[in-house]
Write a structure and sequence with these properties.
The protein is of the alpha+beta class. It is built from seven helices and seven strands. Strands 1, 2, 3, 4, 5, 6 and 7 form a seven-stranded mixed β-sheet that branches.
Length: about 220
């Protein structure tokens, strides 16, 4: 029993680490965003068009053995006053849970921020879902009008895609932190999320061009 616990703790620690470089992580996030926006059971256009910020996290890992954890890395972008999207900054997501659970899976997560308050929290050093911003599983086109379980007043809508399924998913208690190492790797020293968001649009890499091509789908 003790050995099994040590193994799951090791798995949880290992799952928090990503060996991808910043450019690779940005490109993977761009491809994930494209995939999630073109899924058959789509996010309603009105939800996308009103969004003030997004977070996309490819290959989020969930591990459980009595205690559980969810970890992932990705990027965030803020919609500016003129409707354009900011340069993406790198983030890390982590969360834990207790109770009977066992298993491991990988999936993609998309978070849509709906209020200025939630955006300001995202730009801070860390934001806890359900504490710093209310969060709800997001509506999908097929259930947009008739689903009474969705909290349409939520400041953040969350979506998850796993093994071909696309489902609204609540992430209450999950924490998003800025990934300072990746931000410095990609943008250079002395940088943080606010500086990245306020800087001029950067499109001098293939990964960045692909990201802006992907996020343009939100405005369609």
């Amino acid at each position: 029993m003790k050995k099994a616990i040590y193994m799951i703790v090791f798995a949880l620690i290992f799952a928090t680490h990503s060996f991808a470089g910043a450019s690779e992580e940005l490109l993977e996030s761009a491809n994930t965003l494209k995939d999630m926006l073109r899924t058959e059971n789509k996010i309603p256009p009105s939800i996308l068009q009103k969004s003030l910020a997004i977070v996309v996290i490819p290959n989020t890992k969930r591990v459980g053995f009595f205690i559980g954890g969810e970890f992932g890395k990705g990027v965030a972008s803020i919609r500016k006053g003129d409707g354009t999207w900011s340069n993406p900054f790198f983030i890390k997501l982590s969360g834990g849970s207790f109770g009977w659970q066992f298993g491991f899976d990988m999936n993609s997560i998309l978070l849509i921020f709906n209020s200025p308050k939630s955006v300001n929290s995202l730009l801070s050093s860390s934001i806890t879902m359900g504490v710093d911003a209310s969060i709800s599983a997001g509506p999908l086109s097929k259930t947009f009008e008739k689903n009474s379980k969705i909290d349409f007043s939520a400041e953040v809508f969350s979506y998850r895609k796993s093994k071909g399924l696309f489902l609204g998913a609540s992430l209450k208690g999950a924490v998003i932190n800025q990934d300072n190492d990746k931000n410095i790797e990609y943008y250079g020293n002395g940088i943080n999320a606010k500086k990245i968001v306020n800087s001029q649009r950067k499109e001098d890499s293939y990964a960045m061009k692909e990201f802006f091509a992907a996020i343009s789908g939100i405005n369609k």
